[in-house]
Specification:
Layout: H1 4-26, H2 30-56, H3 63-69, H4 78-88, H5 91-102, H6 109-125, H7 137-151, H8 161-171, H9 182-197, H10 200-205, H11 211-221, H12 234-246, E1 248-253, H13 259-270, E2 274-282, E3 287-292, E4 308-312, H14 320-323, E5 331-336, E6 341-351, E7 355-363, H15 369-374, H16 382-385, E8 392-394, H17 397-406, E9 419-427, E10 429-433, H18 440-443, E11 445-451, E12 457-463, H19 465-480, H20 498-507, E13 513-518, H21 525-529, H22 532-535, E14 550-551, E15 558-559, E16 565-572, H23 583-588, E17 590-593, H24 599-603, H25 610-633, H26 654-676, H27 681-688, E18 693-696, E19 701-704, H28 710-720
Parallel strand pairs: 1-16, 1-17, 3-5, 10-13, 13-16
Antiparallel strand pairs: 2-9, 3-8, 4-7, 5-6, 6-7, 11-12, 14-15, 18-19
Helix pairs in contact: 2-11, 5-6, 6-7, 6-9, 9-11, 25-26, 25-27
């Protein structure tokens, strides 16, 4: 366990280093950086929060006063502020909910986390996330964080997970557990902020009464900060240059060279962001499809707009489960059996025990049964599979969206349907691992099984992980460009004019989306990408000079790859050489080789203990020696990476260092070498020596020897590493 003083020294060093890098990148001094952050983030909190605090801590919260005090709250975006004031509209509920959160707030962290989670659950169950003005859970958590930050400025901070975890990664601070509740994460962020506030570098530049508000401002200002300066981290500079030119790269090399680590590190240092984009949805509105028979139900297509008719319920029609849900005011599309197509829009005006009265709203020439059955989307739903098997059925949003799209005279407005645009959070990175069974259907789109109404198995179209991510990247880019369009599921990519496309091209580098494919060579890449392999090229991305669009085989929707989507793949050359990759793929990707770097083992050590440093030097010599032999009798693609030995940085004592090295050797390095040289015992013995294996059966097989004691192990390893001295450091126990 690190001593408290030592902890703050380390935290201070990391924060100093971070601020210096940011200042250097922005080409300003630290004091100018401080002024810049103050101007953008901290001053707003210092001016806005105190006037709200007294309202929140009063015995009775005045909602009108709270509304007025937060009308110009600059730390909230206009969209967040609108949602906040929507929440305050129900003043009684809002007052009770806020007071239940704030009053007699618990002192211990466990109870505090439970109080926070109870507040969020209360608002969710109360249904404020529904209705005409949607307030989703992301808004609720934002309100909670805001209340606590203002009411308890020495304990809580404005919280968004990505921003605080990114800062924690930059400073080497422990991250919250992935299973933590929002309350636990909010408590964690407060602790983290207090640790920052106690560092000398922070006190030097932000000596303020409300230090946590200043820490929050610092965190907000450094979101997604590019902290790589010119001349620093040349590998990352190379990745950045190559990915801008090619749009997709592959980092390749032997196992254990840190390929995946550096791919993620590059993104975290250059761009990690969570965006809010609009998500269009129907609001508390169910639309039905009604099967009408003539002459029993009358000739509905010939009835006049506004005319009413009665749909008798006699107990023998297959619609009871939807009849119970149908309410006056609900809308239905009429499928008229006599014409075998959709013909009308009707509204329920009265529901009796055995009959429903509908009013004619609209007549239109809708799709026929054949049209529905053959449609690539509707054909796999109930209305396309068996139109006559029900009398009344609720339509899904997807089904309704598709019907409107293929029916010229039909629209949401004509149906009297309210459309809402709410905010959803979108992260700008996605991680996936390829494997032999991974296919086009997982990546782009495919058919997924589902259970039909009659209990039998059916199939429906479902978009894959890459297609979904491409839509998100496009929607964020168009939002930032001020273009009012949205690419939704089950829709073609929007058509833009040349000026709008130019806006997308100009802004693409500022709003990157990164798709990381780990172990890219373990999947059948040609089959996974399919026709998208051509669309990957820089000049063939959407809005680029030679833009290419394709029609997807299952949904028949038009698809393209947006210009702000970048692909980073990692490839283990021990599994498959780069020379074996498809030429078409190699032409469209840039490649960066990552080979073993033994010096990293010494660079990551956090101790100055000379004995531990000596053991690290032994590990470096060992790695170098083994890799030289592997290159000589195997190839360079099967070398051992330095990351196997990075666990040595955890050692606090000499015995711990030897124990870690012992584990690495016996449980990671030797099994890997055994896999490489399973059929070549003599070559394996040449690499690891006589102290660790015995050749048997006339050089055709081998046995591993019993594990050596720490003292014997270190001597054997040093001998193997071709060290001149094989003496043992003092203090090492057998």
């Amino acid at each position: 366990m690190i001593h408290k003083t030592q902890f703050y020294l380390e935290m201070n060093a990391e924060l100093t280093h971070l601020l210096e890098k940011v200042a250097l990148k922005r080409k300003i001094s630290l004091r100018d950086l401080k002024s810049e952050i103050d101007m953008k983030e901290i001053q707003d909190r210092e001016s806005d929060y105190p006037k709200v605090s007294s309202i929140l801590l009063a015995n009775e919260i005045d909602i009108d006063a709270l509304r007025n005090a937060t009308s110009d709250l600059l730390v909230l975006s206009w969209r967040d502020r609108y949602k906040f004031h929507t929440f305050l509209k129900n003043s009684v509920f809002a007052k009770n909910a806020i007071q239940a959160l704030i009053k007699d707030f618990p002192q211990d962290d466990h109870s505090a986390a439970k109080r926070i989670d109870a507040f969020i659950e209360n608002l969710n169950t109360a249904g404020i996330s529904k209705g005409k003005e949607i307030i989703n859970e992301s808004h609720i958590t934002l309100f909670c964080s805001l209340f606590l930050t203002i009411a308890f400025p020495d304990r809580f901070v404005d919280f968004r997970k990505n921003r605080w975890t990114n800062l924690a990664k930059m400073l080497g601070y422990s991250l919250p557990d992935s299973n933590d509740t929002y309350g636990q994460m909010l408590v964690w962020a407060g602790k983290f902020a207090r640790e920052i506030a106690e560092t000398p570098i922070f006190k030097k530049y932000w000596d303020t009464e409300h230090s946590l508000w200043a820490v929050a401002g610092l965190c907000w200002n450094l979101k997604g900060e590019n902290i790589v300066v010119d001349g620093e981290d040349p590998m990352y500079q190379k990745i950045k240059e190559l990915i801008q030119n090619k749009k997709q790269i592959i980092i390749y090399g032997p196992p254990g060279t840190g390929k995946t680590y550096h791919a993620k590190k590059f993104i975290s240092e250059y761009s990690t962001e969570e965006y809010r984009v609009s998500d269009t949805s129907l609001i508390d509105q169910t639309v039905y499809i009604l099967i009408a028979y003539g002459p029993r139900d009358g000739d509905i297509p010939k009835k006049k707009i506004g005319e009413k008719f009665t749909y008798d319920w006699t107990g023998n029609r297959n619609w009871q489960k939807f009849f119970d849900d149908l309410q006056a005011g609900d809308v239905a599309l009429v499928y008229f059996q006599a014409e075998h197509r959709l013909t009308s829009v009707v509204r329920c005006v009265q529901k009796e025990k055995e009959s429903i009265t509908f009013e004619i709203m609209l007549h239109f020439k809708g799709p026929t049964y054949s049209d529905l059955h053959k449609d690539p989307i509707l054909g796999e739903t109930a209305i396309g599979r068996a139109t006559m098997s029900f009398s009344l059925r609720a339509l899904s949003d997807m089904e309704l969206e598709r019907l409107i799209k293929i029916t010229p005279d039909l629209s949401y407005e004509a149906l009297g349907i309210t459309i809402d645009t709410s905010d959803i959070q979108v992260n700008n990175q996605k991680f996936v691992t390829f494997h032999p069974s991974f296919g086009y259907e997982d990546f782009i789109e495919g058919l997924r099984p589902f259970t039909k109404d009659d209990g039998t198995l059916g199939y429906q179209i479902e978009e894959g992980i890459f297609k979904e991510f491409a839509r998100q990247a496009f929607n964020v880019l168009s939002l930032k460009a001020g273009i009012e369009c949205e690419w939704n599921d089950h829709e073609d990519i929007p058509e833009l004019d040349p000026e709008e496309k130019q806006q997308l091209r100009d802004l693409a580098p500022k709003y990157p989306f990164y798709f990381i494919i780990d172990e890219i060579n373990r999947g059948d890449i040609s089959r996974i990408f399919g026709e998208l392999i051509t669309l990957l090229e820089c000049d063939k991305r959407y809005a680029e000079e030679n833009e290419m669009l394709t029609v997807l085989p299952y949904s028949k929707l038009t698809f393209a790859i947006p210009p702000n989507l970048y692909i980073i793949g990692t490839m283990n050359t021990a599994d498959r050489s780069i020379a074996l990759l498809d030429i078409a793929l190699r032409r469209r990707f840039g490649f960066i080789e990552m080979m073993p770097q033994p010096k990293v083992i010494r660079e990551i050590l956090k101790t100055e203990d000379p004995t531990i440093q000596e053991i690290a030097a032994t590990a470096i010599s060992l790695l170098t020696s083994i890799n030289e032999k592997i290159i000589g009798n195997y190839d360079r693609d099967h070398q051992i990476g330095h990351s196997y030995f990075t666990k040595l940085n955890e050692a606090k004592t000499t015995d711990e260092a030897i124990k870690i090295l012992h584990f690495i050797w016996y449980h990671e390095i030797m099994p890997l070498l055994q896999e490489y040289y399973y059929d070549s015992p003599a070559k394996l013995q040449e690499i690891i020596g006589n102290d660790f294996i015995t050749i048997t059966n006339h050089d055709r097989s081998f046995l591993f020897k019993e594990e050596l004691s720490p003292k014997e192990f270190l001597i054997a390893i040093r001998k193997l590493a071709q060290k001149e001295s094989v003496t043992t450091p003092s203090g090492i126990n057998d």
